[in-house]
Specification:
Elements (H helix, E strand, L loop, with lengths): L1 E5 L6 H16 L2 E6 L1 H8 L11 E3 L10 H7 L4 H10 L5 E4 L3 H10 L12 E6 L6 E4 L9 H19 L5 E5 L10 H11 L5 E6 L11 E3 L2 H26 L3 H21 L7 E4 L4 E4 L6 H17 L1 H9 L11
Parallel strand pairs: 1-2, 1-4, 2-3, 4-11, 6-9, 7-8, 7-9
Antiparallel strand pairs: 5-6, 5-10, 10-11
Helix pairs in contact: 1-2, 1-10, 3-5, 6-7, 6-11, 8-9
């Protein structure tokens, strides 16, 4: 297994990215190709004991900065770490690509350049794992498409179903459409039209509309929405989780009796923190492109990068891309409304 890592992206710099790569290479025994400015990557790598680890460096002279326009940046900076990494993926030099850098540029490069969209997929979607009471929930789209058509949501449901089934080994996953009410008549025109289409799709276990409160309850295995709504849902949940954890930590250390109590609660608190920690879940796959492309938080630290690489490896071994191809390519010439 070989995974390409964009070693120049992210808020915490190359040192943190390389630290995550070293951890992943040691933990999972896989080859991780570090793409970036060679001198910078070598300097970061020199701070670690890497004997026996497979961590080759591929030089990329340019970096796409966070403030740049995505499409313009990928066209102008052909030798950026993002574009060099995606071309390596397209050529089959590795099984997956991971970036914590400019997410818009990574998506634009993957869709417009290499490896490109799967034939028949109208819009690729970002899918992320959401912690829930009944187990992990997959939410998509969480940022690739802020404006969508009802037909796109149908495809998101199909791709999400394939990914969930293969990654979590649970057949016939329940598909829920995010809305402001359970009734078919609730929601925007987009949601109402998508609901009617989803009911007609063979092979989907569509359970109808679900509300935001139902997501952490795990009432659906796959939650489908547009990228604007999905991004707000995920980031709000992350913010609430962070606030709650910090508040609990502050209260448990506010006095000597509380500190003594905290010692007894430490194992339980650790389990709660792990369950709510977004770094534990790694990155989000861009479903619908001809390869495994994982986009992860720019603020990820080494542990999060390691887990993003784990997600990339799991996705590559799952055969998700091949399954999505087999689902869409035979009907690529037909319209979604004829499904």
């Amino acid at each position: 297994m070989r995974v390409i890592l964009d070693a120049m992206g992210g808020d915490n710099g190359t040192d943190e990215l390389v630290s995550g790569a070293v951890m992943a290479a040691r933990q999972f025994g896989i080859e991780i190709i570090l793409v970036g400015q060679e001198a910078v990557v070598k300097s970061a790598l020199s701070k670690h004991q890497v004997e026996g680890l497979k961590l080759p460096i591929v030089n990329a002279s340019e970096v796409i900065e966070m403030g740049e326009h995505p499409a313009q940046a990928v066209r102008r900076k052909k030798d950026s770490s993002v574009m060099v990494g995606l071309r390596l993926l397209e050529k089959g030099e590795a099984e997956a690509f991971v970036s914590a850098g400019h997410s818009g540029a990574t998506m634009a490069g993957a869709i417009l350049g290499a490896p490109g969209r799967i034939k028949g997929v109208e819009r690729p979607a970002l899918a992320t794992v959401f912690p829930a009471k009944q187990g992990a929930v997959l939410v998509l789209d969480v940022g690739a498409n802020t404006e969508v058509k009802p037909e796109y949501l149908v495809q998101f449901a199909q791709m999400g179903s394939v990914y969930f089934e293969r990654l979590f080994k649970r057949s016939n996953p329940r598909i829920g459409l995010l809305s402001n009410g359970e009734e078919e008549s609730k929601g925007s025109i987009l949601v109402q039209e998508a609901h009617q289409l989803l009911k007609k799709v063979n092979g989907l276990n569509f359970i109808g509309n679900i509300e935001g409160k139902d997501v952490p309850e795990g009432l659906a295995d796959v939650v489908v929405t547009d990228g604007f709504t999905g991004n707000i849902l995920i980031k709000t949940a992350e913010g609430v989780a962070s606030y709650l954890l910090n508040t609990i930590r502050k209260e448990l250390t506010s006095s000597l009796p509380n500190k003594l109590l905290a010692l007894g609660l430490k194992p339980a608190f650790g389990r709660v923190r792990k369950a709510l920690d977004y770094e534990e879940y790694g990155g989000a796959p861009l479903l619908g492109v001809n390869g495994i492309v994982i986009i992860t938080h720019g603020r990820m630290k080494a542990k999060g990068i390691m887990n993003s690489i784990r997600v990339a490896g799991d996705a590559a071994q799952s055969g998700t891309v091949e399954a999505i191809r087999s689902l869409f390519i035979p009907t690529a010439e037909a319209t979604i409304t004829k499904i």
